[in-house]
Amino acid sequence: MRTVFVLFDSLNRKAMECYGASQVKTPNFKRFAERAVTFDTHYVCGLPCMPARRDLHTGRPSFLHRNWGPLEPFDNSFPELLKGAGVYSHIVTDHHHYFADGGGTYHNRYSSWELVRGNGADHWKGVVEPDMARYGQEFHPSQVRPYLTSYMVNRDHIAAEADFACPQVFAHGLEFLERNHAAKDWFLQIESFDPHEPFFAPERFRSQYPASYKGPVLDWPVYGHVSETPEEIAEIRANYAALVAMCDEYFGRLLDTFDRLDLWADTALILTTDHGFLLGEHEFWGKNLMPVYDELARIPLMIYHPDFASHGGARRAALTQAIDLMPTILEMNGLPIPPEVRGHSLLPLLGGEQTLREAAIYGYFGAACNVTDGRYTYLRYPEEMSAEHLYEYTLMPTRMHQRFPIAQLVGATLQPPFDFTKGAPTLKVRPMTNRDNLPAVMEQRTFLNTVSKLYDTRYDPEQRKPLNDKGTEGRLARQMARLFVEIDAPSEMFDRFGLSQKAYQ
């Protein structure tokens, strides 16, 4: 089997014409939807970037056991399983988190890999004394902060469109296709960090989305509550729109290659993202800190498979989830699905509508556990957000950009094996917290608006009107507890979310 898997980062489905958007021009996503099966109720699992990729690789949720981190020694990784079965797997990416401490085990699972440097805060160009005075004039004050210094340095080296990462990623991907399209049994992952912030696109895309803002560069919103002026808000949204438009155009070049080489006859093509992004909806920017609204959780998925070409343009309403892609890709290649997998192959859905699951859970480690049945979304927070009795379970003690502090490892204990660790015990380690012993994310910041809420997305798709419906809350909580048992969640997580464990054992 030949498969091309296109993974964007932070692609909001509400910015795609094929999902009903009108503010951004995305003719190529729309063009692909005419050939593919489009999934309308597709949800994330773990968030953000690397937790989402761990779930994509393994086909099972990990956000109740672990924060951001690498693939573990006991994890099944679908590109490695493909490689072991003789299916060549290759990744082209500009996602710099793969090469940081908390993501260093992912790209090695492929047969080969290519890294495009310089996107976002990638530590690319070595400048010992960056010109912070100049950057203070060129960039909005909210962007002149230590974490973004690398981006400001990188931007000095990005002038022509060919210097941008997204065009380079797709160029390398098309090079792979030109060289290998006639070969048997390969898997190609084309992964663009765009449209993740910074929302920096070539001028020919940016000019399509005019805004009245006249200040310094403002293309990387600060995660959290919206405090910007209307002009600044419009500028950030226009920059995002321009970046999505660029992603669409370069994806279109991939479609052109499929046309020219007639890859539609024998090659599958999958398009999705890891999570969405809040662009001021619910009065928030970004992700990570706030509740996981559907702008973050309900993501695009389109699949073309030559065996189901006659279903091009079809849409599916069934509840699906990011963990379903791993078993789907394995089944496409005739490989067995490991017993630890909790996702479902989507191949049956390509042929027609049917139900794969009653509910799905998703979220951030340490925050709410969210559950949906495809209509209702229940964002359930612990009654007490304290990190007391909250632990991470790992054999790879690294965080996003660092190893675990030795003080945390000194107090670590061994946890008996979970049902997915293949007999191996794990370290049981205290999580990252702030001074008040609250679960911490992003430079010790804590979660915001930690109040449980229920929404009916059929009648309230914008999730603006929380429901008071104890019956539906109870039903979804029971589904959550059942899924906790199914994934062998840590016992303390049942207590943390007030769920019954015994009823499902």
- Unreliable spans are none
Strand order of the largest sheet: 5-4-6-1-8-11-2-12
Q: Helical element count?
A: 14
Shape: globular
Mean pLDDT across the residues is 97
C-alpha Rg (nearest Å): 22 Å
The count of β-strands is 22
What is the oligomer described by this structure? single chain
Strand content: 15-25%
Helix percentage range: 25-40%
Head-to-tail CA distance between termini: 39 Å
Main pleated-sheet profile:
8 strands, mixed
Q: Give the structural class.
A: alpha/beta
Describe what you observe in this structure:
Strand 9 and strand 10 form a beta hairpin. The chain is globular, with a radius of gyration of 22 Å. The strands form six sheets. Strands 5-4-6-1-8-11-2-12 form an eight-stranded mixed β-sheet, with helices on both faces. A four-stranded antiparallel β-sheet has the order 14-15-16-22, covered by helices on one side. By secondary structure, it is α/β, with parallel strands linked by helices. The chain is built from 14 helices and 22 strands. The protein has a domain at 365-504. Helix 6 (165-180) runs parallel beside helix 8 (230-261). The longest helix is centred in the middle third of the chain and has 32 residues, at 230-261.
Please outline the helices and strands.
Blueprint (H helix, E strand, L loop, with lengths): L1 E7 L18 H7 L3 E3 L2 E2 L5 H10 L19 H7 L3 E6 L18 E4 L16 H7 L10 H7 L9 H16 L5 E7 L10 H4 L17 E2 L4 H32 L5 E7 L4 E2 L4 E3 L7 H4 L3 E4 L10 E2 L3 E2 L3 H8 L14 H5 L8 E4 L5 E4 L3 E5 L11 E3 L11 H5 L2 E3 L10 E4 L10 E2 L3 E2 L6 E4 L13 H17 L4 H6 L9
Parallel strand pairs: 1-6, 1-8, 2-12, 3-13, 4-5, 4-6
Antiparallel strand pairs: 2-11, 7-10, 8-11, 9-10, 14-15, 15-16, 16-22, 17-19, 18-19, 20-21
Helix pairs in contact: 1-8, 6-8
